[in-house]
C-alpha cells in the first residue's frame, strides 16, 4: 500500500511539473496553425479577378467563393449595410490604386471562413511585397479616450469631403458588434501615404465586444499588423508574421483581451522607428485624450513572441532587433503564461513611468518564459534594471528564464508549410486543457 501511495504521489508530482511547463505560449492539443495559415504566401496563385469592388457599398452585399474580387481604390461599406463573404473567397487589393476596405461605423462585415477554406485578402501583383495595398479597417461605436471620438480621414487625402462621415469612429456602446472576422488572412497590406505614413494590415477603431475576432493572420504588412484604437476587443488565435511595423499595437483607451496568439518577427523586416511585437500606449500626445476616460488596458495570455534570427548576437549588435514589449505611460498590461524569445531586451517601460508599487502592480508579468533575450525588463533610457529584476524575479511571479536556441525552444520551425510554434520542453508539447 505504501509503495502504491508513493508511486501515485510521484506521478502527481511529475504530472504537476509537466502541466505547469505545458501552459506557456500558444497552446492546443493539436497545432491550430495547420490548414488555414500560410507562411509562404508569395508561392500561392490566387487566380485572376472576375469581379470588381469599388466606390461605396451602401446596401447588403454578398461575395462568393466562385469569384475572385479586385478591390479598387478606397472602398467603404456604409449606410448600415452588411458585407457578407463566403468561406474561401479571394479579394485582391489593387496595387495601382492602393486599395483599401473600410467598414464604416454602423456597418457590418461577416467574413466567416473555415479552417480548410479561409477568406483571403492579398495583393494583385505577380510579385507581391509589403505595402502593395491599403488593408482592412473596421470602425465601430465603442468608447475611446480621444476628445470628440476620432476619425481616420487623414488616411484618405484624396476623398471628397462628403465621404469623411464614413471615416469617423467612437461612441458609448462597448458591447456593440461590427460583425465577424474568423479564419481570415490579410497579406501584403500597409500602403504608405504622404499624410500619415503606413496603413495597417487590420485597423480596429472603437470596435465593440460582440465583434468576433478569431483565427486572423496578418502577414508581410508594411505598417502594423493589428492596430487597435479604443473599443473593447477580444482577440483569439491572432497571428502576425514578418510585419515591418508592430505586430499588436493598442492605443487610445483600448480594453482588450488577447489570448493564444502568435507574433513572429524578422530582424530584416522592421521600419526605421523600431518595431515591437506588443506595444501598449494610452496616447501619442497628451492633449489629444480625455484622462477622465479609461486608459488602455490589455490582458495578454498565452502569447508567443518570437524573433526569427539565425544569428541573434550579430543582429542585436547591428541594431536590427528591438524589444518585444513596450508599455507606455498610464497604460496597463497583465501578461501571463507567455513566451518571449530572442529580443533586445524582452520589455521596455516608457521613461515617464515612475517605478513605484502602484505602477508596478498594474504592469504584471506572471508565469512567463523569457528566453534568449539581451536582458529582460528595463526602464527606457536606463541601463540599470536591478529594481525591475528584483521585482519580477520574485518567486511569487513564477517567471522562468532560459538561454535556448529557437530550435530547442519550439517544436518545428524549419518547415514553413506546417510550422509548429508551440513550446518544446523536454520533448513535451505545450498544451492547455
From TrEMBL:
Domain of life: Bacteria
Name of the protein described by the UniProt record: T9SS C-terminal target domain-containing protein
Species of origin: Gilvirhabdus luticola
Upper lineage: Bacteria, Pseudomonadati, Bacteroidota, Flavobacteriia, Flavobacteriales
